[in-house]
Amino acid sequence: MASIKTIKVLVGSQNPVKISAAKSVIARYFPEYQIDCQGLHAPSGVPEQPLGEEQTRLGAQNRVSYLQQHHDADFFCAMEGGAHQFSYGPATFAYVVVANAHYTSVNRSSNLPLPQPIYNALMAGEELGPVMDRVFNTTNIKQQGGAIGLLTNHVATRESTYTQALTLAMAPFLHPHLYIEKASDEV
User: Fold this and answer.
1) Is the dihedral of CA 50, 72, 37, 181 positive or negative?
2) For the domain that residue 40 is a member of, what is the CATH number?
3) Neighbours of 163 (CB within 10 A)
4) Is 147 domain-assigned?
5) Nearest Cα to 79, choosing from 91, 68, 93, 69?
6) Of 78, 110, 95, 106, nearest to 173 (Cα)?
7) Which residues contact 109 (CB under 8 A, 6 or more apart)?
8) Residue 171 lies in a domain
9) Binding residue per annotation — 73?
10) 136: three-class secondary structure by DSSP
11) pTM for the full model?
């Protein structure tokens, strides 16, 4: 009897929503493998509530870099939620980073419009999860459906947003010959 091959995935967070999203995406792309997905503490190097796209992206990249420096795995993943005051209004979003030994892929989720008073609380130094818990009278929503679940009446969730962004971020690992840049190659 042939043994089942395993893919080891490390996620730069112990949040079960992020771990579940990473495991489900990798499992869909590699159904012939057993997925060993673990969440580990990995510092983001940015504030607890990142503001702006650059800070949010950097947080996810820092988490993956930390994992790569301290652990061995087939894939390293991180998801960082942030918020920004865009010209059309405030919104929350996430950056995701997926890496292996050869390539790092960065992607961003879609925006969830935020009510201005909620964004103002973030600007005052609060984190989105606790603000949403207070506004909606919930407990630890960030490890459940998140602000996305609450503001969409649970039609979308934090995990569904991470799953979509991670699914798209996997493209370079499925077609590496198209993404590994060679100076003399042309499409």
Assistant:
1) positive
2) 3.90.950.10
3) 20
4) no
5) 93
6) 106
7) 93, 94, 95, 96, 161, 162, 164, 165
8) yes
9) yes
10) helix
11) 0.90
Answer whether 7's CB lies under 8 Å from 73's CB: no
Residue 87 lies in a domain: yes
CA distance 170 to 104: 10
SS3 161: helix
How far, in Å, CA of 126 to CA of 73, rounded? 34
Total domains in the chain come to: 1
> Look-up: residue for tokens 């060679």?
182
- Taking the chain (187 residues) in runs of 10, the rounded mean pLDDT of each run is 86 96 98 97 96 98 98 98 97 97 96 97 94 91 83 92 97 92 57
Structure tokens belonging to residue 141 = 């929503």
Phi then psi dihedrals of residue 34, to 5 deg = -85, 135
Amino acid identity for residue 91 in this structure: A
Q: Which amino acid is at 84?
A: H
- Structural domain for 46, as ranges: 6-112+158-179
- 171 vs 72, 75, 153, 166, CA distance in Å? 22, 13, 31, 9
pLDDT for the residue 17 = 93
Residue 153 lies in a domain: no
